[in-house]
Design a protein that fits this description.
- The protein is mainly beta and about 325 residues long.
- It has one domain (about 15-325): Beta-galactosidase, Chain A, domain 5 (Distorted Sandwich).
- It has helices spanning about 1-5, 75-80, 85-90, 215-220, 300-305; strands at about 20-25, 35-40, 45-50, 55-60, 65, 95-100, 105-110, 110-115, 125-130, 135-145, 150-160, 165-175, 180-185, 185-190, 200-205, 210-215, 240-245, 250-255, 260-265, 270-280, 285-290, 310, 315-325.
- The strands form 5 sheets. Strands 9-10-11-12-23-19-18-15 form an 8-stranded antiparallel β-sheet, with no helix packed on it. The protein has a 6-stranded antiparallel β-sheet with strand order 6-14-21-20-17-16. It has a 5-stranded antiparallel β-sheet with strand order 1-2-3-4-5, with no helix packed on it.
- A hairpin with a 2-residue loop joins β4 (about 55-60) and β5.
């Protein structure tokens, strides 16, 4: 960026990028804050401080990469007030974080009720900061999920996007701020949609992996989990768990569009990739979801022996990177 300015190609660095705060002023999303980011490499995305500092719509070279549900964006007041109404408020978006204390089906764990996919997305970020230097656009914020006489989990989220580039890196430092061990669950629910996703697309995964279908219907799709169909009215979703062994990446390619999206993540902290494949008419989406669990809900995960635990004042750092490329 400095080189282009010194050589006289630009007089204002903002010619190469956009970083601005806006507030939606109409529709069901009225009042929602957004941080709009556009790079010189052709990447454009919405970062959402009111909903976990997650990522909404995303475009690359003008083409839509992310998936948006029929619901679209909602105001934070609606999401907070209706945490049990997931199907009516789930927006999709490039990144929808699930957790922090439960992920998967709504469930009761002892005296506690946990809504579908947890409460993370209803948390509003604080201590938000934005910055641009010669290399990166950086957005930071802090989120806390707490209860009186109970848990206190803090997430310090950092999102880095190269000014000239086409990648997004999300880094979360998750800390248990109590003197007692705390069970926690996290899913990085990354959602890709049309036109990147179509019957011309294919998913590429490491050869060394174990594929586990979640349901009997998913089992009928074994062998076809990396290919896609045209939209099918009423088609049931399929979920596969991909257990990677040494390599932690996935790539969605669309030769007809000439674009691919590659995901990498911290396999030491997120050892399981959940693959959500919905070919349903109007609900056409591929979810690639690095996770620290099998998305069964808090109580079932404990019974299964797969509920992660953070020790007293312990921290863990998760990293997910998505890179778009013209092929």
């Amino acid at each position: 960026m400095q080189t282009a300015q010194r050589q006289g190609y630009i007089g204002n660095p903002a010619q190469l990028f956009t970083l601005r705060r806006i507030t939606v002023d109409e529709g069901r999303a009225r009042g929602t804050q957004m941080i709009e980011v556009c790079t010189a490499g052709g990447l454009a995305l919405d970062i959402l401080p009111d909903t976990g500092l997650d990522i909404g719509q995303c475009r690359y070279k003008g083409a839509v990469m992310s998936w948006m549900s029929k619901n679209g964006y909602d105001s934070p007041a609606v999401i907070s007030a209706h945490e049990t109404e997931f199907l009516h408020t789930f927006p999709g978006g490039l990144l929808y974080t699930c957790g922090l204390r439960s992920a998967g089906p709504a469930n009761r764990d002892g005296d506690e009720w946990h809504p579908l996919h947890g409460r993370y997305h209803s948390l509003q970020a604080q201590h938000i900061s934005t910055d641009v230097d010669d290399e990166f656009i950086t957005v930071r914020g802090t989120l806390r999920e707490t209860a009186l006489f109970g848990h206190a989990l803090e997430v310090k989220r950092t999102i880095r996007i190269p000014v000239q580039g086409t990648s997004i890196t999300v880094e979360d430092k998750v800390t248990n701020q109590t003197p007692q061990p705390e069970e926690y669950m996290q899913i990085y629910h990354c959602n890709f949609g049309y036109p990147l996703l179509s019957e011309q697309a294919r998913l590429v995964l490491p050869d060394e992996r174990e594929t586990i279908p979640r349901t009997e219907f998913a089992k009928t799709g074994l062998g076809r989990e990396c290919s896609f169909d045209k939209p099918i009215p009423g088609e049931e979703e399929r979920v596969f768990f991909q257990k990677m062994h040494r390599e932690f990446w996935a790539r969605l390619e669309n030769p007809a569009l000439g674009i691919s999206a590659t995901m990498t993540w911290s396999g030491d902290t997120l050892p399981i990739l959940s693959q959500w494949r919905s070919m349903a008419h109007g609900d056409y989406v591929l979810g690639l979801e690095p996770a620290n669990c099998y998305i069964m809900g808090r109580s079932a995960e404990r019974d299964n022996g797969t509920l992660p635990v953070l020790g007293a004042f312990e921290s863990v750092t998760n990293t997910v990177t998505i890179t778009f490329k013209e092929d």
